[in-house]
Amino acid sequence: MEELHSEAQQAEPPAPKIIGLTGGIGSGKTTVAHFIEEFGFPVYYSDDRAKAIVNESEDLKIKIKELLGEESYDKNGLYDRKFVAGKVFSNQDLLEQLNEIIHPAVRIDFEDWVKKQTKYLVFKETALLFELKLNRQCYKSLLVTAEDNIRIKRVMDRDNKTYREVQAVMEKQMSEKDKIKMADCIIYNNTNLEELKEETEKVIFAIE
């Protein structure tokens, strides 16, 4: 009995459940992520980590330069997001090849991060959850969405972009209707921050 008790004490805690958090441009995904952190749950920001990893990994630097050219990095050796965006925005094949370089590195980084977490839920924030089928690696998917006209106005105000510029970006993304069909949980962000925070709390604490 003592041996069994000792083994039980040494058993590792169960792995946290991974919740994929996503939303299109102007949806309020990042705001929801910050609320989730306020409620005590860790959030892995995939887009932010990807931005860091392309500057940290010498292996990635070599592969990206081979794919897109030396101009992919500036004279200080930093990833030139504007140059890269210009190269891949209208070239789906190049974009897919770039993703094949970056996303495996982000996946490994995320797996290492998860091992350090102690909460029963962890959230993986990523804009391409459904597009890259990353939802299959998650316990549940959580979509933040809003009406198109609201999303467009938010981005116009935030980034000083024209209606057409925002619309062009949205047209490159999976439709909200398709995302809603695929999502396990949905947060509608059509009102104000107070109601968004309340809705976020209700949804995440209902996850079992």
TrEMBL record:
Pathway entry: Cofactor biosynthesis; coenzyme A biosynthesis; CoA from (R)-pantothenate: step 5/5
GO terms of molecular function: ATP binding; dephospho-CoA kinase activity
Subcellular locations according to the entry: Cytoplasm
UniProt KW keywords: ATP-binding, Coenzyme A biosynthesis, Cytoplasm, Kinase, Nucleotide-binding, Transferase
Any one GO cellular component localisation term in the record: cytoplasm
Gene Ontology biological process terms in this record: coenzyme A biosynthetic process
Alphabetized PROSITE patterns for the sequence: DPCK
Major localisation: cytoplasm
Binding site for ATP: 26-31
Superkingdom, taxonomy of origin: Bacteria
EC class of the enzyme, as a word: transferase
EC number(s) on file: 2.7.1.24
Catalysis performed (reactions): 3'-dephospho-CoA + ATP = ADP + CoA + H(+)
InterPro entries in the cross-refs: Depp_CoAkinase (IPR001977), P-loop_NTPase (IPR027417)
Family according to the record: Belongs to the CoaE family.
Cited function: Catalyzes the phosphorylation of the 3'-hydroxyl group of dephosphocoenzyme A to form coenzyme A.
HAMAP family named in the record: Dephospho_CoA_kinase
Protein name (database record): Dephospho-CoA kinase
Biological source species: Chryseobacterium arthrosphaerae
